[in-house]
Amino acid sequence: MSLHEVTDSENVGIGFFAAFLEAIVLQPTLYWKNAAASGGKVPFSLKPSVIYRGTSTAIVSEMQMMGLQFGLTSVLQKLYLSTVLGVAAGTAGTTGQEEMSFFGEVILASAGGALSALTSSPMELIMIQQQLRGGSMLTQARRIVTVYGVGAEGLFRGLSQTMLRDSVYTAGLLGITPAGQNILERRGHSERAAGFYASVIGGVTCAIGSQPFDVMKTCLQGDLEREVHQTVGNTFRGLYESGGVSRFMKGTFFRTLNIVGTIYIANEVRVHATRALLNQRSSLLK
User: Fold this and answer.
1) Helix, strand or coil for residue 286?
2) Do the Cβ atoms of 154 and 145 come closer than 8 Å?
3) pLDDT of residue 253
């Protein structure tokens, strides 16, 4: 099952639904990841009232981010198939499975992830500020824009690191995992086993690869006052001097747990939803 087998709007809907599920189930791991990566700015807690603070923002953030990642990657895959390989991928039902290489899927997914960061970055900044200060999503958004502006010092603080992180993350979510599942299934594994193995491989790979960017993003977005983390360069030097390479890996365990869970849920939703849509389409044609 591939993204280009259904329409772009259907892929956006699949991404929305998958994100809604995983955002609710995995919110604790997201909070603990932010606490570990922030260097103390976000306090560690086991209290549900604290852990689930900002969950509404997290759900909105995850839904728009994953919906965009699914939709943008679908568009890019179809453009690649139609313009580079000459496959008529502009309509639903086109598989193009044999024409789309493993690395092609990974690269296109990475590009889709980088573009999705244009909206996910400000949403995550608002969520982090909610976790620090409380208040509603609208209240924090208004405060950030009023005090710090819309640019790189305010709402879009940490954008470059988010784009790098999301490009690696989406490469795992919509590149390594679906392509890896197809390979494992062709080698005799069941769909369920192949999906699980591919999700773990894709999740661990992109979690570790994107971890340093996520740590820097969290530090920058958690310190709008610029008390410690003034710029990207200053943040990198400060983190390295405070703990070397290991400082960039803080929060890796909880983040890896979150990402593997996210990718597994999203991949299962993608496979079953795509099959249901194709079956429905096929039955209507009979």
Assistant:
1) coil
2) yes
3) 85
Which residues make Cβ contacts (< 8 Å) with residue 50, sequence separation at least 6? 31, 43
Measured CA to CA, the distance from residue 190 to residue 177 in angstroms comes to 15
Task: Write down the pTM of the prediction.
Answer: 0.83
The crossing angle, in degrees rounded to 10, of helices 8-37 and 102-133 is 50
CA distance 286 to 282: 7
Per-residue model confidence as pLDDT tens digits over 198-237: 999 999 999 999 999 988 998 899 889 888 888 899 989 9
**Residue 251 φ/ψ region, left for φ over 0, alpha for ψ in the -120 to 50 degree band, beta for the rest:** left
**For 57-69, what is the mean pLDDT?**
85
Q: How far apart are CA 273 and CA 28, in angstroms?
A: 26
CA-to-CA distance for 73 and 98, rounded, in angstroms? 18
